[in-house]
Amino acid sequence: MLLAFRASRYAPRSLTRALLWAGFDAQWRRRAKPARRLEDNLHRVTGLEGAELRALSRRGMASAARYYAETFELGRMTPAVVDARVRLDDPHDALSRIKADGRAVLALSHSGNWDLVGAFACRHILPVVSVAEVLKPREVFDEFVALREKVGMRILGHEGGSTFRELIRIARTDNVLVCLLADRDLSGSGIEVDMWGHGVKVAPGPAALAAATGAPLFPVHVHYERLRGRARLRARSRWGTVLRFGPVIEPADAPADDRVGHLTRAWVQFMSEAIGEHPEDWHMLQRFGWTETNG
């Protein structure tokens, strides 16, 4: 991964995309563990089996390869190309509320290209602060952090309670979007919810942060769409990214005795529906938080 990341700075974009797709497609054909994990997760979302599930999982592997190719390319994208690849879908007028408050907590899933929309948000909404798992080797984590900081994001390494305390300070004092990938719990203290008729544990972070700071909470979903004509030429890609905001979730409206659980269930309702509409763009190639056995 580290070698591919560094090589992508100099290699033609078409070569980077082709190599990443070849690698992900080979995993799909061999039914390697990431492909099997993805199929198991997608089965639970959609109920599909057999050839239909295999076809969906191949589109899912293609979407994951697209994410990495675009992210490796992000440092070389001009602002105009970033803008051309992102379309904002804001049916609830979330931006008006965010700009009025000067802050918000966003709950995201591992869908579409969250790095690309982060670069877009830094320029058009508010600066983005997020948290990332510290990967091994550390050099991989450092490369991803450097890339995200280059496009305006601030990234905190996931280091337990001290990270959450820093997020609280930032959310209370700075005009920022705190964006947290929350569909996969890494804290060990996940909130159990229902998604697609299954018990799932998701991260408590977005709800806990909104409850602690009073900042409005918004679920956000990201998915791909095909581009054609002039839109494709401006984006220099066949694919664009849709940044879709859900409705505002007010911490003050949640019951005091179950505030974090209430807020979590609210954003999960939007997210589970959005992932169900675009399952091929949910890049869950890892073990997910099903409360029943996940093989």
Automatic annotation (TrEMBL):
<dbReference type="GO" id="GO:0016746">
    <property type="term" value="F:acyltransferase activity"/>
</dbReference>
<keyword id="KW-0808">Transferase</keyword>
<keyword id="KW-0012">Acyltransferase</keyword>
<keyword id="KW-0997">Cell inner membrane</keyword>
<keyword id="KW-0472">Membrane</keyword>
<protein>
    <submittedName>
        <fullName>Phosphatidylinositol mannoside acyltransferase</fullName>
    </submittedName>
</protein>
<keyword id="KW-1003">Cell membrane</keyword>
<dbReference type="InterPro" id="IPR004960">
    <property type="entry name" value="LipA_acyltrans"/>
</dbReference>
<dbReference type="Pfam" id="PF03279">
    <property type="entry name" value="Lip_A_acyltrans"/>
</dbReference>
